[in-house]
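assembly run, all chains below
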Amino acid sequence: MKYLCLVYSNEQLLHSLPESPKDAECQAYAEQVAHSGRMLAAEALQGVATATTVRMRAGQVLLSDGPFAETKEQLAGFYLIEARDLNEALQLAAGIPAARVGCVEVRPVRQLVV
Amino acid sequence: MPILQSATALAAQIEQLYQQHSRQVLATLIRLLGDFDRAEDALQEAFSAALVQWPQTGVPASPVPWLISTGRFKAIDKLRQQQRFVSDGEVVLAQIASEEAGDSFALQMEQQWPDDYLRLVFTCCHPALSLEAQLALTLREVCGLTTEQIARAFLQTPSTIAQRIVRAKQKIKAAAIPYQVPPPQQLAPRLQAVHKVIYLLFNEGYSMPCQQSAPDDGMQQADLAQQAIDLARQLLVLHFDTESCGLLALLLLQHARRQARFTARGELILLADQQRQHWDQAMITEGIRHVETALSSGRIGAYAIQAAIAAVHSESPDSASTDWPQIHALYQLLYRLEPTPVVALNQLVAFSMCHGPAAALMQLAPLLADEHLAQYHLLFAVAADFHRQLGQNGEAINFYRQALALATTNADEQFLQQRLQDLAAK
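ok done. output:
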């Protein structure tokens, strides 16, 4: 099963709390997951101020500045992992350092029906 | 050698098998078939087959493995028929059919049953499901209650409960919540989740008077408190754990008081006023035995301490001769594990029994200021009671009125109204 682990956090606080993870720690955890063979992709994201939202309406591309929805916590990064089941995925998600200051939403990836 | 018997006796025997073993058959079928709905269909098919075949063949020597094996074959047949229409039919079929089913099948089923039951419990109480989904799913799958019985117990419509169960099963499938007993390093938090479900089920049943008139439609009212006790007992038998032991003890010691907790009209009777000769002594004895086991294991948890408190009450003939200093000490211990305002309130009540209501009133202020307790009717009832004992009737009436405004059950409301009437009469 593939799971997408979405890391959310208040980006004003993500790097400034006492328990905030440093980049080196995040990198180390990502490497650890990669070595376990369960990593498909993982990236940290730039802040939502850099986001552009794209819509296609009546053949026209509509762009708007900012994220899809203004929320208290923002998408800060993601892991795409391969796990045996939800328990294994949850365990990996719990280890993501940013989970200490934000939260991680774990979503099973849907197989397209073709 | 199968024994042939009369049709009615056989039907009764099959009914009894269903009552006693359908959960066992279901738990194993879910593992073998990898799907709740498929397993439930297979369970019904297996019992239907028994009703048709056993009158001719007699009851098999090992009926439970027969039912599991029959259910599994029925599911395989059905999948073969549907293969063209089910997207993953072929894969599923290959998995299911590869499971060994030879002579050793019956023996295997007997050996794996405890694990299958635990798998079912842990899956239904998985913390990735909402708590209300866990409760409904546990009652439906583990306890075997009907959707209607669950709906009645939670004062919901059957369609709400049915939807809750369907969604929970969909999540189990789509998110791949595994059908397994958690590995040792994850067991403690997962057991806590199971304990919580059992305790909530018990409380749901315990908050209602036990002798309710039978509903007009004749449908049996599910006894959630008894279901919770059965679950706790089964859990403890299959997997020893100190807190499982403490939980079972607590439920037994509380349930032992059920006949004494309400008047015939369903009004609540306080612990101090209960007729203790109506407490169930056999249940108390069993509960105390489990408390002692839990306390002697060295790792003491919150359920064991609460059970120990209940045990102290059980051992005293009346409220006045209760060992209140010991109860107060136990609440202090509990507060260290669970520093909640509710525990603090109970500790204060025990303190008042040791040192009097005036001393207790002096310590009440921080609790009255605690926003977590602002909606908790018992806080105001306790405050009222301290004032009532001191003869401060005006203050007592004020607090009883606040408690009444926050009370959520009929029994509580009746009790508080009675207290108000008594004070008004003075």
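Chain B touches chain A at residues 87, 128, 174-178, 180, 182, 186 (CB under 8 Å).

The domain at 351-426 of chain B is CATH 1.25.40 (Serine Threonine Protein Phosphatase 5, Tetratricopeptide repeat).

not gonna interpret more than that til we talk
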